[in-house]
Amino acid sequence: MGPRFATIDVGTNSVLLLVAERAPDGSFRAVDERMEITRLGKGVDRTRVLDPASVDATVEAIRTFAEAARAAGAAKLVVTATSAARDATNGEAFFEKAEAACGVRPEVLSGDLEAALSYASARHDFGSAAGSLAVVDIGGGSTELVYGSGSEVSFRRSFDVGAVRLTERWLRADPPSPSELAALREDLTRTLAAAPPPPADSALVGIAGTVTTLCALHLGLSAYDGRLVHGQRLRAVDVRALADRLGRLPLAERKALPGLPPSAPT
Asked: Which GO terms describe its molecular function (predicted)?
């Protein structure tokens, strides 16, 4: 068995654990992957303050994941935090609780660094099969867009639009009303207008929970399986059909769909 390392990624919507084993050739093999939806960023777009109940749930998930990582033999644990932690004025109190729970202080990733890491990940798995890449990382609080070819990045930016942030800004009815959905799309279109169009020959690579959940829904998976989702192709017409379907369903029916975690705050 090679050395093992672990990361805990604290996002706006969920907490992710990855424990990976390093092979002699330097590659990594996942040995444990877990997700817990804690919605740390609940209300942060409006208040700029982390919700106490969400903090407690997130800290407990960090504690549980850190214990699992060490039980799996991880020699090193890294904890990172992204959009919600960047924006909140009371982030320091959360960091102290998280450090007390797992022994590691979370490192806050800037939007620029988050975008760079997203591109590096996509390039590692898909760069050899395509010329240029257009990478989109849709999180709960932010969305990163990166264009590049090989190691050269031509555009990189993090935008303050994500699944949780836009839901809280615009969606009130259940299911969302046409006017609410139109306002959300207008906000998103206005924000992303700052990004240039990707190179015409780019392969579009989507990463993170929103994209993988859409893929799981498209496949109708009764239980999420990363091996089936990773590298799967989604056509634009498929994404539009999913968006239209989800936008018409009440919350209870959305949560019952195969491929969507029942605890997802959709």
From this structure: pyrophosphatase activity
